[in-house]
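Renewal narrative, Specific Aim 1. Our central claim is that a sequence can be written position by position from structural information alone. The example that follows is taken directly from our test logs and has not been curated for this report. It begins with the structure tokens describing the chain, in the order in which they were read.
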């Protein structure tokens, strides 16, 4: 049996990682693993890890590697990941990348592709500040770039309750962009060195990026 596909989406806040990961779930039957979503659930549950993560997330910094790795390992034990995964927002530090390699190697797996969504930082402030999601199914929307077909009604599930993240303010995005450049952008060369890096222009519209990404993922899963 071929090992399940492991994809990484790299890119600053607002690059479109979550949007495209959900599309890849539908198009390829892969499972999105978002450490941001896992951490937000931990915060909401009031667990010890969540309590430690909360203030760091609100300030736009990176949560400690130990906490993030524990949460991710836990999620990777669940049976649905056998369909193949899209890591969204992980790894974000050298240590996370090294631990991921070790974790995958232990079950005979490896990173098949790390796809860097290349964007202009300035545009990310507007993308993040205008972001909101469906409170029922989590579908992502944008005040300007991706509105539901019927105002106030989720295209996917018909839900009418929407929410915005506390950290999606222009000020916090600037902190998050700094953290991205200082700690996460260096991973682009790490994956380049391993021969699995793909760079795509992610300033186009959502449908165009879906096409490009789909081509890459089809190539990787056929190997
Ligand atoms: P990330 O997960 O990388 O932080 P998201 O996928 O949540 O980014 O996208 C951020 C916001 O920008 C969302 O409101 C989303 O609807 C919107 N968006 C995503 N991709 C694009 C795009 N290519 N062009 C314009 N807006 C986009
Ligand atoms: P975005 O996709 O907009 O960049 P995420 O949902 O991925 O946002 O992350 C939100 C916040 O959660 C980050 O600003 C950070 O505080 C924390 N976080 C998420 N993933 C990680 C990670 N792999 N390592 C450290 N902190 C993380
Ligand atoms: Zn919905």
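The sequence written for that structure reads:
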């Amino acid at each position: 049996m071929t090992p399940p596909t492991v994809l990484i989406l790299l890119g600053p806040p607002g690059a479109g990682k979550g949007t495209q990961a959900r599309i890849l779930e539908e198009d390829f039957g892969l499972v999105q693993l978002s450490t941001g979503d896992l951490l937000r659930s931990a915060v909401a549950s009031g667990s010890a890890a969540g309590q430690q993560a909360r203030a760091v997330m609100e300030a736009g910094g990176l949560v400690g590697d130990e906490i993030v790795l524990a949460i991710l390992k836990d999620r990777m034990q669940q049976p649905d990941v056998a369909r193949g995964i899209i890591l969204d927002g992980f790894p974000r530090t050298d240590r996370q990348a090294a631990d991921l390699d070790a974790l995958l190697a232990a079950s005979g797996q490896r990173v098949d592709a790390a796809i860097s969504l290349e964007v202009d930082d300035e545009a990310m402030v507007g993308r993040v500040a205008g972001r909101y999601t469906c409170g029922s199914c989590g579908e992502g929307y944008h005040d300007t770039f991706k509105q539901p077909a019927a105002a106030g009604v989720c295209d996917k599930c018909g839900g009418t309750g929407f929410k915005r993240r506390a950290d999606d303010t222009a000020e916090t995005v600037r902190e998050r962009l700094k953290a991205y450049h200082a700690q996460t952008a260096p991973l682009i060369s790490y994956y380049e060195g391993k021969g699995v890096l793909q760079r795509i222009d992610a300033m186009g519209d959502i449908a165009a990026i879906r096409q490009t990404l789909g081509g890459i993922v089809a190539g990787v899963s056929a190997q």
